[in-house]
Design goal:
Number of strands: 12
CATH architecture of the largest domain: 3-Layer(aba) Sandwich
Structural class: alpha/beta
Strand order of the largest sheet: 6-5-4-7-8-9-10-11-12
Oligomer: single chain
Distance between the termini: 221 Å
CATH topology of the largest domain: Rossmann fold
Mean pLDDT: 82
Length: about 300
């Protein structure tokens, strides 16, 4: 069998084609991770879009739990305040009271014992017959004493040595002053005595002694009775009732008893029959009106009957 032409020729085998170089493809750019999404750490499972809502829900639930806890604490605190309001008010009241007591005690201690309020000045007012220096010398033993510790009983004893002092009023003026307001005895008349004349006040206290009769002061004639007699009281009651224009014209008042009082005007003037010392205020007004008329040649006025006037 005849072989086909060229069968016996050695066949040339073409070398296999060289593989084409693989085209390098550009790696895709990594996705931008949102700032709020933390980067996946090595070895951790990457978060998938399906896991994001679960994390937000967990965070929301935690916030709700914290909010509920805060609300619970506020509620508990309000309940505690509501149930302890009375006790808190009681404690506040006690604290305020204690503070006031402590403050007052401190002020009292300062006022009583502190030398900042010591007596350094004594002021004497209201004297006319008395010498204020004599009064000051009698009471100045309490200088440098705190005002709250001044011994007023001692002052009473010291001023009692002055017969002309009828009464007095003291006033402390912080920080260092004591004011003593003196009320002197006012003379009402003079009494004749074996040694002269005694100037007396309505209480019969001797204000001044004199060998001669004291001018400008009516003479009280009570027939040798003392200042503790009813006749003296009747004469004083009439003298006190007389107005000043009548009193300056009076020379002598004679009182044998309470129901027998007579007056004599100065300068040889008229005599006034007063009668009883009762209703002296009414009689004094009638006599003042009669004397103001200046009746001529009148030697005697009679006001012994209240509301009536006769003259001679």
């Amino acid at each position: 069998m005849k072989r086909p032409e060229g069968f016996d020729r050695p066949q040339v085998v073409a070398p296999p084609p060289e593989p084409k170089p693989r085209r390098r493809t550009k790696a895709p750019a990594p996705e931008m991770i949102p700032e709020s999404t933390p980067a996946t750490e090595p070895g951790t499972i990457p978060r998938t879009p399906d896991a994001v809502p679960a994390a937000d829900s967990d965070r929301t639930s935690r916030r709700a739990v914290r909010r509920a806890a805060r609300q619970r604490r506020r509620f508990e605190k309000s309940e505690v305040r509501r149930f302890t309001r009375r006790s808190r008010r009681r404690r506040v009241a006690w604290a305020v009271t204690l503070g006031i007591v402590v403050t007052m005690a401190s002020l009292v201690a300062v006022a009583v014992y502190s030398p900042l309020l010591a007596l350094t000045t004594i002021q004497i007012d209201g004297t006319s017959r008395l010498n204020p220096d004599d009064l000051h010398a009698a009471v100045d033993g309490q200088l440098d004493t705190p005002l709250a510790l001044i011994d007023f009983d001692r002052i009473t004893e010291e001023l009692g040595d002055f017969p002309l002092v009828r009464s007095y009023v003291t006033e402390t003026v912080p920080p260092h002053t004591l004011i003593i307001q003196i009320v002197e005895r006012e003379p009402v008349g003079s009494l004749a005595t074996g040694s002269g004349f005694d100037l007396v006040d309505p209480a019969g206290v001797v204000i001044e002694k004199s060998q001669a009769r004291i001018p400008g002061v009516p003479l009280i004639d009570i027939g040798g009775e003392g200042s503790d007699s009813a006749a003296f009281d009747a004469a004083v009651e009439v003298l006190i009732a007389l107005p000043q224009p009548v009193l300056v014209q009076l020379d002598t008042i004679v009182a044998g008893t309470r129901d027998d009082v007579e007056l004599t005007l100065a300068g040889g003037g008229a005599k006034i029959i007063w009668g009883s010392a009762d209703d002296s205020a009414i009689k004094a007004r009638i006599l003042a009106a009669a004397l103001a008329q200046n009746y001529p040649n009148v030697v005697e006025y009679n006001v012994s009957a209240p509301g009536q006037l006769t003259y001679r």
